[in-house]
């Protein structure tokens, strides 16, 4: 739906506004709308599992902050801080997840090229994104293998050493090989500093992108005015 440049602006705006938290007092309706917005985008892309997890975390964090804000003990203070961190950081994280998971590598490189980013920055970003995507797939296979051995998250509390052995050790071994494979793949795709390369990506800013960027600008102005008024 959106160009990657628009998604990046949305992520930065949402993260800045939500982490500050002052919109909850100056424009509460706008603040709650911004919290819900990334989940609406995830639903539109049919990422139901991640959306449910995020909404559940938001509900729990709101419950914690509302029920422990008058507590005086250390446990109440820790719970209140944890709930506030989740509530303020999670919307930006979910928007970042949406931006990454719905953008192909070709569109990412083309969008950064259109912004005249230097190749010295584009290539590491492209390789890093591809690395984490490949590592996520490898982690899924590791989880499948653990289920075959009957090792689930509940085993972490029963036998943490065995869980660590079956989860983290293979992940470290796979990560090293994945890093080499991704670097070789980047070179074979023509990602070389100072060299022009062709792209089949037709990414461009559309009317909806300009409207969303304008909306982000309005939100940021309201945020600044409310913060320094």
UniProtKB/TrEMBL annotation:
It is found in: Membrane. The chain crosses the membrane at residues 25-43, 72-90, 207-226. GO terms for cellular component: plasma membrane. Keywords: Cell membrane, Membrane, Transmembrane, Transmembrane helix. It is a multi-pass membrane protein. Its main location: membrane. Pfam families: CbiQ. This is Uncharacterized protein.
């Amino acid at each position: 739906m959106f160009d990657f440049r628009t998604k990046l602006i949305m992520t930065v705006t949402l993260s800045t506004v939500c982490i500050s938290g002052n919109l909850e007092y100056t424009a509460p309706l706008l603040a709650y709308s911004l919290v819900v917005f990334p989940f609406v985008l995830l639903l539109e892309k049919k990422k139901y599992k991640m959306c449910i997890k995020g909404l559940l975390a938001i509900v729990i964090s709101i419950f914690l902050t509302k029920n422990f804000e008058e507590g005086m003990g250390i446990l109440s203070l820790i719970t209140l801080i944890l709930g506030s961190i989740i509530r303020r950081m999670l919307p930006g994280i979910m928007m970042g997840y949406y931006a990454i998971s719905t953008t192909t590598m070709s569109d990412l490189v083309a969008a950064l090229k259109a912004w005249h980013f230097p190749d010295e920055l584009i290539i590491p970003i492209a390789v890093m994104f591809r690395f984490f995507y490949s590592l996520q797939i490898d982690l899924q296979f590791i989880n499948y293998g653990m289920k075959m051995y009957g090792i689930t998250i509940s085993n972490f509390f029963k036998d943490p050493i065995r869980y660590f052995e079956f989860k983290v050790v293979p992940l470290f071994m796979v990560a090293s090989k994945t890093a080499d494979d991704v670097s070789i793949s980047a070179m074979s795709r023509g990602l070389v500093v100072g060299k022009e390369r062709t792209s089949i990506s037709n990414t461009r800013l559309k009317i909806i992108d300009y409207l969303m960027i304008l909306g982000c600008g309005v939100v940021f102005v309201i945020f600044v005015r409310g913060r320094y008024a």
